[in-house]
Structures are given as C-alpha cells and as structure tokens.
Request: fold
Amino acid sequence: MKYFSTRGGEEHLSSAEAIIQGLSSNGGLFVPEEIPTVDPAFVKGLVPLSYEERAVAVLRRFLTDYTEEEIRGCVTRAYGLDKFDTERRAPTRIFDDGSVLELWHGPTSAFKDMALQLLPQLLKTALEKTGEKATVLILVATSGDTGKAALEGFRDVDQTKIMVFYPEGGVSRIQGLQMLTQEGSNVNVTAVRGNFDDAQSGVKRIFGDVAFGEELAAAGVKLSSANSINWGRLVPQIVYYFSAYADLLGAERIAYGDEVNFCVPTGNFGDILAGYYAKCMGLPIGRLICASNRNNVLTEFLHTGTYNRNRAFYKTITPSMDILISSNLERLLYHMSNDAQQVAKWMKELAKTGTYTIDKKLLQKIQQTFWADWADDEATKATIKEAYSFHHYIPDTHTAVAWQVAERYQRETGDQREMVVVSTASPYKFNGSVLSALGVPVDSQDEFALLDRLQELNDDKIPRGLASLREKTVRHRDVCAPDEMKKFVAAFAKQ
Reply:
C-alpha cells in the first residue's frame, strides 16, 4: 500500500518512507491510497486476543511493507516490558448506562502513549528497512500530553533526537514537570511564548522551510514529526476502537453487528479520526461524537461548515484541547471530498485568512457520521462530581467533557446505542481541577500533596510515572519566542 499527500502531488511512498518523512513535501498529510476493509470473522476473532495481538492484526492491514514479524516486534517493545500498569493496556470500563475506554495506563498516563510508545519502534524499523543513515530529528508541538509521551517513547532510541515545544504557562503543572524533568541523551524541551497554535504553526513553518531542511541534511540530520500529522502516530490509534468493540463483544454487552457510538474529547482531531478509519474498515460504529471545550472551533465547523480560527483563545481546565488549528481535519476533508486540489485550496485559505467554508453537500455527508458539541469549565466540573456520585468513578477533565457531551447527544437525539466515552488521561494529571470539582479545597497545596489527596478518594492508585516526579530534577529551562524556534532547532540539531 502506498501513501500520498492530501494536497496531491507526485509523492507515492511506502508506509516506512511516509513514517520517516512525517509530512509531505507540499505541506499535506500522508493518507493511504485505499482504506482496507475487514469482515465479521476478523472482528469476532479479536475477542480472545491480547491487546498486542489485536494491534498486530489491525496494523498489518496498513503497514504492508513491514513483515508481520517486524510489526510484532514493534508492538511487543511498545506495549510490553512492564511499561503499562494494566495487562489489558486499554481496558473498557463498563457501567450500567455506558462504557469508558481507558487509554491512560501507559508510562505517561495519557492516551498519547498508545501511539507514541509504538511510533519510535515503527520509525527505527523503517530506518533499518530503507537504509536511511541520517539522524532523524523529531519535532513536536504539544498542548501537554503529546510532548511527554513522545519524549518517553523516543528517549535514547538510536539514530533519533527529539525536540518538544510547548506553550509557556499553557500546560498543567504535572504536565510541565513531566516534560521538564525528562531524562535522555537525545532530548530537548523548550517553552514557547504563546499558545499551542503558535508552537504548532512554528513547527509547520520549519518543516516547510526547504533551505533549512537542506542545511540540516548537509549536517546529516533529517526532520520528522511525532505529532498526529505523522501517519505512524495515527495508525496505532485505530487499534483501540477495534479493541473496545471486541471488549464489548466479549462481555456480551453487544452482539456482533450492533453499532456503537464513540464520544471523543479532541482538539487536533487525530483521536476521533482514528475512529473514522475504523468505521471505514467495517467496524460497526454508529456516530462519532466530537467533544470540545470553550475553544470550540470544531463544534462550529461541524455545525456550519465554516472553519474559523480567528477567535478568542481561552485557557481552560482541559489544556490538551486548547487548540484552534486542528491539523487532522485535513485528512477527513480529503477522504470525504476525494479532491486533493480543493483540500489544498482550503488549507491555503486557512493559512492566509484564518478561515474556509466547505459546501453544504460535503457538510451533510460529514454530519452523517459526526456530531459535535462542547462543554465549558463549569459543566466539566459538574460532570466530574456527578460521575463520582453515581459511579464512584473519577474522570479527568478531558474525559468529563466527553462524558457531558455524550449525555447531551443522547438527550437531544434519542439515540440509545451503546455509548463509549473515550478517556484520554488519568485524573491525577489534572489533580487540582479534579479535586476542585469534587469540592476539595486546593489552595496552598503543592502538586504532590494534591496527588496524595486525590488518592484518598480514588480507587485507582497514583500512576508510577507521576509518583516518581517527586524525586526528579528539572533538566530543561529553555524558552523562546515563536520566531526563534528555527534557531533553537538548528542549535540542538548540530549538538
């Protein structure tokens, strides 16, 4: 299977080549030339399998230039070795009125581990397969969770370096400590004076700077990405939709063929897009419900067809969704329109004016699969309190946004198909906001006192990676303006 750009062009790469390159030369995102399909026997056959075995079964449909042995090795190194705190990796918690897919049992306590433990292994294997000799420098813009997960995944991986940019003051204290204390001989963490979109736009400009790329190549360095613009980051996320469905089958919560709805808290649109790929492959998914916070640019787009990032930017208690430019929406537009030239035009309009509008017919096609709404901080806190009161379950703030939107979807549409709320982070990563929602005073307590206090209420223990932060030393202190990012990359690349 070959991969090409959402904006057209002549590039047709193998999956290994696309994973190494990250972003196409014309600025588009790589997509598969076709989406493979599966039959009922495939889905039913996943029920007795481990998460690793399910991952191999799904990934080999897309990564056709990797051998099954190579995929199996990558998966074992990603999800094994005692990295996850649960044998099931991504367990589905079933309640009377719905289910929660927990994606935060990895080393950094966020859903990004599901992809970013695997991407480095896929990349390392791709470098070996293609004979690439350059050092690959991974550039990452993060709104909080991607950064730590990428740093942990790429730490000390041969032939790679990783540099993470995050918005100064725009991540939770725990998220910040996770990144700033990161160990490894090949890692760098730099704060950007601005918001996530400033960091993400800066990274995209660096990728688009041909002269800079040539300068780095002359020094034996090649740029790539660990953000979900990289296909190797997105394809592992498809697996957990199949895994959740298999869990529900195994628990006899559903029968095969019953459609399941998924409500996903999302800012960059990658997590929910993985569900779209699973649906296109033949997994019985009904609606994909896009849950946003006050930075509700995706909600507006899915309601009106107009994408407009020219709006106020809000810092919320769900910082991983404090995003106004949702990169992966470009992939959906390509698949829904099948018109690379039009996609390129929309992206050019977005870069130039900050907005674009799709036609009504395309919007209606998208709305057949996607539904969207948003929740503000107060509604989010109320949902955390309600989940604890009714289920003795504590969701993190992002999960609570999805929980709230899922309930609203069911009330407004009357759709009572099985609902799976996709849970993207441990509540311990946002302990201050979670405790506040539960009515616990948080003023004057440090992050670790808050971790201990939340542990008193929560059935789940403090994750190992967060507990160990108490003894770690801050190692990264660099700060730059958005227009200085290239200079900082050049300095790190040549170290």
User: Anything to note?
Assistant: The first helix runs from residue 15 to 21. The longest strand covers residues 160-167. The chain has a mean pLDDT of 95.
